[in-house]
Amino acid sequence: MTVIETPHAVFREGAVEADGFRIRYTEAGEGTALIHLHGAGGMELTRGHELLSRQYRVIALEMPGFGESAENTRTARMADLAATMAVAVKNLEIDRFNLLGTSFGGTVALLLAMLHPGRVLGLVLEAPAAIRPARSEPSSVSTQEMARRLYAHPERLGILPVADPAIQAKTRRLVSRLRAPDRDTDLETRMGELMTPTLVLFGTLDHVMPPEMGRFYKELIPNCHLVFVYDAGHAISTERPEAFAEVAVDFLERREAFVVNRRTTLIHP
User: Fold this and answer.
1) Are the CB atoms for 56 and 34 separated by under 8 Å?
2) Angstrom distance (rounded) from CA 62 to CA 39
3) CB burial class (10 A; 0-12, 13-18, 19+) of residue 13?
4) Paired strand residues for 12
5) Are 130 and 39 contacting, i.e. CB atoms less than 8 angstroms apart?
6) Residue pair 201/125 in contact by the 8 Å Cβ criterion
7) Using an 8 Å Cβ cutoff, are 57 and 29 in contact?
8) What is the rounded distance in angstroms from the CA atom of residue 241 to the CA atom of residue 208?
9) Looking at residue 141, what is its pLDDT?
């Protein structure tokens, strides 16, 4: 198993087979498993992962078709991708777990929780993309423009890596093919039946997914808490990792008893 050292934690890299796919993952920490499903940009370790690994066994899975994996031309629907990821977790010999989904991965995580409600202890959706504003078409933009969309303050993050054009193109084809309608009535109806304790997080300065979309999750999911993270863009766990980890851990520890002990739903610096 490959070892990936970050400034504050050591992540181990491995692979698991599921539905004929070889799925790469990284993990660190001990305790209850916390499975992470990444956004459309692919799997990337953040300071948020490091902080969460102090409390949980954090396992970040790379969904088939992302990163260095082969192009995924077989998965036909988002629900199929969710089912494959559920098999991957099962093949890691993990039965019950907490689940974190980011943006595109938030939709996959939501569907996985619907498919296997008995396995998911708590669900955290970071800037989920399951419900989008009308005509929110995906676009091909430069690394600099994408940084301005993902982060409220990209200048604070230093030099950002340039994405591989071939990986970008491959990923864009997959995401476009799996993309559901901006408002999926069937999905929204099923959200009303999801009893899993759920936390939805949006950055107040998200330029990819308007934070006001969070209200739909709050209204549709019976056991849902909505928190707006102050001064954060779309990539909350990268830009405000301490605030992100603080509220996520607090929620996962208390679940149904979770109450944001603040006068508003903002997490202040």
Assistant:
1) yes
2) 10
3) middle
4) 3, 27
5) no
6) yes
7) yes
8) 18
9) 60
C-alpha span between 106 and 198 (Å, rounded): 11
Question: How far is Cα 68 from Cα 60, in angstroms, rounded to an integer?
Answer: 15
User: Please, what is the Cα angle at 118 between 112 and 120, to 5 degrees?
Assistant: 50
Q: Do 240 and 231 meet the contact criterion of CB atoms below 8 Å apart?
A: yes
**Which has the higher per-residue pLDDT, 263 or 196?**
196
> How is 154-211 classified by DSSP, letter by letter?
GGGG-SPPPPPHHHHHHHHHHHHHHPPPSS-HHHHHHHTT--S-EEEEEETT-SSS-G
The span from the CA of 181 to the CA of 188, in Å, is: 11
- From CA 108, how far away is CA 204, in angstroms rounded? 23
Beta bridge partners of 34: 58, 98
Tokens (6 digits) for 195: 């009893």
Tokens of 106: 């938030």
The continuous run of DSSP H or E covering 106 comes out as helix 104-115
CA distance to 66, 75, 142, per residue, from 126 (Å):
19, 23, 23
Bridge partners of 249, per DSSP, are: none
Phi then psi dihedrals of residue 75, to 5 deg: -70, 125
Paired with 266 in beta bridges are 228
d(CA 67, CA 63): 9
Q: Which residue has the tokens 């994405």?
A: 163
Residue that the structure tokens 């409600």 belong to = 117
Question: For 46-66, how does the pLDDT look when each residue is reduced to its tens digit (9 = 90+)?
Answer: 999 999 999 999 999 999 999
Per-residue pLDDT tens for 182-202? 999 999 999 999 999 999 999
Q: Which structure tokens are listed for 263?
A: 């006068």
